[in-house]
Structures are given as C-alpha cells and as structure tokens.
Amino acid sequence: MTGKDTRLSVLKRNRIADILSGENVGNRIMVMGWVRTRRDSKGGFSFIEINDGSCLSNLQVIGDDKLKNYDKEVLTLQTGCSLRVVGTLVTSPAKGQSVELHAEEIEVFGWADPTIYPLQKKRHSFEFLRTIAHLRPRTNTFGAVARVRNALALAIHSFFQERGFILIHTPIITGSDCEGAGEMFRVTAFDLDHVPMKNGQADFQKDFFNQPAGLTVSGQLEAEIYALSMGDVYTFGPTFRAENSNTSRHLAEFWMVEPEMAFCDLEGNIDLAEAFLKHLFDHLLKNCEEDLNFFNRFIDSTLLDTLETLTSENYERLTYSEVINILSKAKQKFEFPVQWGCDLQAEHERYLTEKIFNKPVVVTDYPREIKPFYMKVNEDGKTVRAMDVLVPKIGEIIGGSQREDDYDTLLERIKETNLDPAAYWWYLELRKFGTAPHAGFGLGFERLVQFVTGLPNIRDVIPFPRTPGNVGF
Ligand code: ATP
Ligand code: MN
Fold first, then answer.
1. How many angstroms separate the CA atoms of 76 and 175, rounded?
2. Ligand 1 pocket by C-beta < 6 Å: which residues?
3. Contact predicate 280/152, CB 8 Å
C-alpha cells in the first residue's frame, strides 16, 4: 500500500485478527474499526483501542500531537466512533499485547455521542443488550458468539461434505406439517380483514397456494425423499415453531441441521450423531481458542474442560425404559412425576446428564404414543426407534430416529395420530417404491451454540431472536 492509495477497499484493509497473529510487523498498514477506549498521556499522545470484529482482541493504536487532527478530533474520540488508521505496525514494549500501530493518519468516519450512545465501557446485562440488538454485536460477548456460529457452520458443512453427504435445500414454505403438531406459522396472501369464508371457515381454496400453507417446522420429510434417491443427504436451514414456550431454550425461528441417511439404522444414526458432535467440539477447540477462552473466563468456567472431554469420551447410550428405571429410583424430587409413558422433561434430562452420567446421554426407544408417526415401530409394538441426545445444562440438543419404512405400519401410524393419509401420499409412496431402512436426526443449531458458549439464554446466541412478543430488528 502506498501512502496516497487509501481507497476504502476490503482488499487494502488489514484485519486485526491477521495483524495480531504477527503478520505485517514493520509494515505500513491500514485498519478500520470502532473505538473501544481512548486514554491520553501527558506527553502529547493517546492510546486508542480499536476493534473490527475479526477477533476478540483490540488493536492498540498510538496517535500523537503530530497528527493534524490530534487536538480537534483524536482527543475527542469516544467509545463507538468508527475510524480508519494508517500507520506503521511495531512490536509493542507493553505487557499483554504483541504489536501496536503508530498512527500517521486517523480519519474519523462516524462519531458516537457518549451522552446518548448506549454501549459504554461498563458491563451491560444480556436483557438490556437484547433491546439494542443493532449495537450488541459490538460487544465482546456478541462478537464472540457470531464468530463461534460462523466457525460451527463451516464445521457442520465440512463434516458432512468430507463424508460425501449432499446438501439439499428443503422448502421454507410448506403444505405439510411435519409432525402434525399444529405449531406452524401460517403463510397466507389473504387480506386478513377480508378473509374469504366457506361454511364458517377460511376458504384456503382461494388463498395463494389453494390450500393451507405454513413455515416449515423441519426439513426432514423432504430430506427423506432425497435420501431415498441419493443415499446420504443433509439440510441446514431456518426452522419455525409457533409454540408459545417462553423458555431459555426455545425460539420461534431457529436453524436446524438435519442429516438423513438411506441404508442406515438407529445404531448408525447414533454413531453419526456422536462423531458429528465430537467433530464440532474439536473444530472449535482448534479454531476458536480466543473466543472459547473468553466464554470460559466470563460465562462458564467448566466450558473448556467439558468440550475437551467430550471430543474423546464415549457418550452414554440407554433406552427410555432404563431411563425411567433410573429416574424412579432417584432421591431427587421432580416437579413432573416419572412413570413409563411420560415424556422426559428438562429436569429429568438434566438429572441424567448432570447428576448421573456427567456427559451426553443418548436415550433410545421411546414409547410410540409420545413420538411422531414417522419413527419406526419396534418389534415390541410399544416403542419406537427414536434417539434423543441430551447434554448437561441444555437437555435435548438432537432428536432423531430410524424412520418407519414399512408401508402398512406407516399408514396405521398416520391414522393413529389423526393425520390425513391423503396429505402424506408422497411420503407413503416412498415406502411403496424402493423402500429402504433409513434414519436421520435434527440438531438445533442454537442449542449447540448455547452448549459451546455456556450462555444461559438461547436469545443470546442468535443475532436476532424471535420469541413470543419479540420480532424487532
Ligand atoms: P423440545 O422437546 O426441546 O422442545 P423437540 O423435541 O420439539 O424439542 P425436535 O422436533 O426433536 O425438538 O427438533 C430437533 C432439535 O431442534 C431439538 O433437539 C432441538 O435441538 C431443536 N429445537 C426444537 N425446537 C426448538 C426451538 N423452539 N428453538 C430452538 N431449537 C429447537
Ligand atoms: Mn425432539
């Protein structure tokens, strides 16, 4: 870069992450970012910490009174101002940082009036930061979350791509409710003040799709179509649930990773899930050291130990019936009483993972009554080939199963769960033509991010959380 050539260009801009890894010492470089702090020294110079989001650390810039705008501008820089600095990178004599930038030029793009800029140097509560989602990625925590999400997304794709899985883009708008659970958001083009009616009900024949439609709650059924053509496939996309559960682990819009494999049974499915999680933890430990250290220091001091153990240790596998046995012998009092047939609640899941096994637990073979129609019925007729992966603190992070591949059993299950077989004609046909054992699971991306960051609330691991009553930003 020459002194004159200072066009605003991503190609010319040096990222702080690269600078701090030791490149460019002795060179003239250009950085752009936002001021975190400014401190002035009596000797006629100032220390300015700037961050550009490329990493957690700030770069220390030193500007002195030889800068033409030193008195007028540099001395009034505040947290949140955006700027461009051109200068020479030198090794730093100060403790705790490797390099510092000696500014020859500081150009301010945008000011941030400290009397009204909401992000000041002190720590802010996560609740408060949710109300300023347009500014919270400028904090250490939310910058780190964004980088961890990014690293995990890459690791998810690389895991499947290395194993020959084909990425399938399943639809966002769908005419079928995957689980018949009625927790779908409706998609309509109706003028809601003048909905065409027929026999006292909305006449969806007259709507955009000529039938009811909604936002997808899962890409699984469509992924099965491709698995039964291409073998191993996966989806990674947005998922929507209108369930009105105001919990720390439910969002109305979240991202789900769903592998689906032909010629695979429940054991193969669990093996894949375990290898998958281990790959993700390992990738993070290798690639997000600085951010993980931050979470370990400020959010959850057991985080690094946990992740390291979970890259190697085998996860516990046991059946639902075994779980009920363990829970009914527990000394702990549960809010929801335990008996065979009940669904596992978060308190049960946490007891298993935190008190009994202290590691992820894979629970299989749940009662058919509490699981969706598409899960393969076991020979006992009472249980299905389901698998949930439970982890400490979060509970269920993965839900999956071997799928019912027998036409008659599937039809019976559809009827038994009060779904309309006609709506599932194509799903049924997959069992009529070239059916094969197949299995898959869904990993909630945000639950994963919660787990690896230690953040207690799922609203803080997605950039713009959608929950009941919240759709701002
Ligand atoms: P839960 O019982 O925890 O509500 P679920 O059994 O309804 O979850 P599945 O239908 O099995 O969830 O979905 C697969 C995965 O998607 C879950 O294991 C979880 O990680 C994630 N997930 C499900 N619902 C939500 C949600 N509302 N917000 C965020 N993640 C979710
Ligand atoms: Mn589930």
1. 58
2. 241, 250-251, 254, 256, 396-399, 442, 444, 446-447
3. yes
